[in-house]
Design a protein that fits this description.
three-stranded mixed sheet; EC 2.8.3.8; transferase; alpha/beta; 3-oxoacid_CoA-transf_B; Glutaconate Coenzyme A-transferase; ten-stranded mixed sheet; globular; acetate CoA-transferase activity
Length: 223
């Protein structure tokens, strides 16, 4: 069964380590803030000028002036700070973010990412994505494995305009968790009840499959 948005965020959260500074991109990545594992402290950074982003607010915690880069209202963790976007991008460009989590339209076997533009559709621009992929060594992309038309988003070569080249090392989709190295996708884990054959069928780029592919260990999502 394909992972839900919440389960994708849960699995990404398992990659967080104590003391990490983490930037969360727009979309599914923002949900990671709700699933930081107990017993570790991370500082979540938002490119619009917030370090120490907390979970999404309850109705009682809601502050319309406190938002993330996707204009969603958020909370602030203990020790958080607010600053202008110039300082925020200095952190990103200076390599001070330990992990970046981004969405994407396409990723290919060379670690290229296309995440900001579909030709013929109106867009506002690339935003901070180019800085994020250029300034971080550790990037996880999270996205659906295939389009709504069943076309693979994991390609031999990206077909859309690139956000960055050779910068993506890991991809988490609703079907699988993969590492990119040596010009290939390497299958690390599969979503519960998803077969290796289904993953292979929906992966257009070369896929390396080990003898044993474990299922992801995920908690149940409570509605």
């Amino acid at each position: 069964m394909a992972l839900s948005r919440e389960q994708l965020a849960m699995r990404v959260a398992q990659e967080l380590q104590d003391g990490y500074y983490v930037n969360l991109g727009i979309g599914i990545p923002t949900l990671v803030a709700n699933y930081v594992p107990e017993g570790i402290e991370v500082m979540l950074q938002s490119e619009n000028g917030l370090l120490g982003m907390g979970q999404f607010p309850t109705e009682d915690e809601l502050d319309a002036d406190l938002i993330n880069a996707g204009k969603q209202t958020v909370t602030m963790a203990t020790g958080a700070s607010i600053f202008d976007s110039a300082e925020s991008f200095a952190m990103i460009r200076g390599g001070h973010v330990d992990l970046t989590v981004l969405g994407a339209f396409e990723v290919d076997v060379n670690g290229n990412i296309a995440s900001y533009m579909i030709p013929g559709k109106l867009i506002k621009g690339m935003g901070g994505a180019m800085d994020l992929v250029a300034g971080a060594d550790n990037i996880i992309v999270t996205m659906t494995h295939a389009s709504k038309h069943g076309e693979s988003k994991l390609l031999a070569n990206c077909t859309l305009p690139l956000t960055g080249k050779g910068c993506i090392k890991k991809v988490l989709t609703d079907l699988a968790f993969m590492e990119i190295k040596d010009g290939k996708f390497h299958l690390l884990e599969r979503a519960p009840n998803v077969s290796v054959e289904d993953i292979q069928r929906l992966t257009a780029g070369e896929l390396v499959i080990p003898e044993h592919v474990p299922e992801m260990d995920l908690p149940e999502v409570v509605a």
